[in-house]
Amino acid sequence: MLKLKISILLVFLLGHGIAQAQISSYKFKRDISGVNSIWHGIKLPEQLYAAENKGFQDLRIFGMTGKDTTEVPYLLKQRVDQIISKEVDFKIINKSSDLGLYYFTFQANVATAINQINLSFKQSNFDWQATLEGSNDNLKWFSILKDYRILSIKNNDTDYQFTKLSVPDSKYQYFRIALKSPVQPELLEAKILKTDTINGTYQDLKYRAYHLYNDAKAKETVITVDLTRLMPVSNLKLNVNSDFDFYRSFKIEYATDSVKTEKGMQYNYAELYNGTLSSLEQSTFNFPNTIASRIKITIQNNDNRPLSISGLELKGNIFELVARFDNPTLQYALYYGNNKVAAPNYEIEKFESKIPSVLAALTIGKEQQNPAYAEKIEKPLFENKAWLWVLMAVIIALLGWFSFKMLRN
Question: 30 pLDDT band (50/70/90 cuts)?
Fold first, then answer.
């Protein structure tokens, strides 16, 4: 009987030791409450981004009860916009011209709703007006777009094209484009598309400081934005109030690190987006969701007057964990703060289509120090007394050997 009790105690202590070993390498934990089914969604708290590795490779969910420890598989999701484009089959049935207008008529195989036409021309420098009409019998035409500007500019400073016709959903079998141009447009390719966007989940980001500087010497406008904390950033909108047409090359960067110098803080940047800011298109830009606390926007003005910018808006996609809790009765917690661990590889990634689309959200507690955390400190080799005794023995042996050799000679 005594042996049985001792065996049970040893098994319990061993199991508890294994459980502690699994979680002891993570500095922080947050209790999870509300687990009552197999699948749940967990929105990552904003405060977590400052303590977390930017790749989120060390996020783990563990459930514990007594000697049992269960690792919960999860998927890290970003609710970004999903763009679905379907190309419509068509053929060009007519090309004609009349009084400076050049017509291109397209016939779709069946009457299909479209909302976008992408055009490609042989010419590299032009500024034309486009009109788009639709018809179901190639006789009676209905106006869809009027005085729509398309252009292409290519020189040493700029390589910019805007030849995309964006229209409300329009369902016709025939589409006719009229281009007002002083020369014959040479159409190389046309793509007719139906594009749908599934909107992602964004949160508005507050910033602590916003600074705009027009550098006359470098011929550029530089805008720096300091966020209130490390946050995921994936969308920028610039409020441009200029009353003239423009197209400017620009880029968006984020600070990767900083160094304090005599001249103040110096930042190193990595690129997020590189494109064109134009009066013909919306000044809203999407880029990969990136955790950052400082953003820099650089607009190339060349020899042009700087743009009048009244402000900007920043947004970021929410990070969410989709997790499978096989045993809802356990006590669960989110662990993180281990920069040496690799990202997990869970098999649920291969069966994502079977995950329910509607998930109950869980409550995440406040950050706390993991009581089981034990930081491993690598001691210098010579702090170990055994190594010192071995080293002394080797030195004494070498000295004795050399002394004996000298005496013998």
Answer: very high
pLDDT at residue 389 is higher than 90: no
**The pTM is what?**
0.76
Task: With CA atoms as reference, report the closest residue to 298 among 268, 265, 247, 253.
Answer: 253
Q: Is 364 part of any domain?
A: yes
- Contact criterion met (CB below 8 Å) for 25 and 341: yes
Task: Please tell me what DSSP assigns to residue 108.
Answer: E
Please give the structure tokens belonging to residue 54: 């930017």
Specify whether 32 is located in the same domain as 103: no
Same domain for 266 and 194?
no
- Are 249 and 349 in a shared domain? no
Q: What is the CATH number of the domain that holds 96?
A: 2.60.120.260
Parent domain of 93: 83-198
What is the pLDDT, as a whole number, of residue 382?
A: 53
Q: What are phi and psi of 199, to 5 degrees?
A: -65, 135
For the CA atoms of 238, 244, 245, 250, what is the dihedral angle to 10 degrees? -40
Do 287 and 184 sit in the same domain of this protein? no
Residue pair 287/78 in contact by the 8 Å Cβ criterion: no
Residue 304 forms part of a structural domain: yes
- Among the residue ranges 84-93, 145-154, 289-298, 392-401, the one predicted with the least confidence is 392-401
How many domains in the chain? 4
Query: What gap in Å lies between CA 63 and CA 327, rounded to an integer?
Result: 9
DSSP per-residue string spanning 64-92: EETTEEEEPPEEEEE---EEEEEEPPEEE
Q: Which of 172, 198, 224 is where one domain is finished?
A: 198
Choose the final residue of a domain: 198, 221, 236.
198
pLDDT of amino acid 52: 59
147 & 233 share domain: no
Identify whether residues 272 and 212 lie together within a single domain: yes
Yes or no: say if 333 and 281 are a contact pair by the CB < 8 Å rule.
no
The count of other CB atoms within 10 Å of the CB of residue 63 is 20
Dihedral Cα 265, 269, 275, 280, nearest 10 deg: -30
Q: State phi, psi for 111 to the nearest 5 degrees.
A: -65, 115
If residue 17 lies in a helix (H) or strand (E), which one and from where to where? helix 2-23
Amino acid making up residue 188: L
